[in-house]
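ok trying again, last paste got cut off:
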Amino acid sequence: MFKDVYGRIANGTDLWNSLEIPSGNTYKWNDKSTYIHNPPFFQKTKLNTAPISDINNAFCLLNLGDFITTDHISPAGAIAKNSPAARYLTERNVD
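nice, full thing came through this time. structure:
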């Protein structure tokens, strides 16, 4: 049973295989998306980067135990109506 199911898994489904595949080597960002955006720090990224320098006098922001994931520390749930996120979405006609 395992070989039968997982032997075909790389083939994908008809729906998966019917997805349109964009051309090019990089992701084509959609500036109108309300879900995902090209991070601003990518705009300054260069092919040849400067050597990494030492970080001095820094403080630990979070020191967490085992089994803590980004799901535990990232905001989740309802978006407050007067929050910056809500204003951003409202400006783009997203309820």
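cool. The chain has a mean pLDDT of 87. The chain is about 25% helix and 0% strand.
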